[in-house]
Amino acid sequence: MDTVNETCDDTTLTKARWCLVNELGRQGVNALANARTGPLTFPTYAVAAGDGTYLISEETHVEKQIPFRFECRTIRVDQSGRVLLDTMTLGIEDGFGCLLDDGRVAILRRTKWELLLTGPTGESIQRIELARFSKRIPRFATWTIRGTFLIVFYNRSFDLDIIEVDLQGRLLWYLPRGAGSLGIAGSVQLLPSDHVLVADPFRHRVVELDREGNVVRQYGQDDHPSAVESRLSSPTSGMEMVDGRIVVADTRNHRVMIIDSEDSARPLPVQEGMLCDPTYVQPTHRGTYLICDTGNSRVLEVDETGHPIWSYGASQVGHRCLSYPRSVDILAADHYLVADTAHDRVVDFTGGRIVPKPFHGDPPLFWPRCVRILPSGSLLIADARNRRIVEVSPDGEALHQLTAFGGREGAPFHDPHDVQMLSNGHLLVTDSTRDIIVEVDWDGHAYAVIGENDGIDLDDPHSAQQLDDGSVLISDTGHHRILLVAANGKLVREWKDLKSAVGCYRFHLPRYAEVCEDGTLAIADTGNNRVLAATLDGEFLWEFCRVPGSTHPFLSQPRWVRLINRDEAVICDHFHHRVVHVKRERDSNSGN
Question: What are the pLDDT digits (tens) for 417-436?
Answer without folding.
Answer: 999 999 999 999 999 999 99
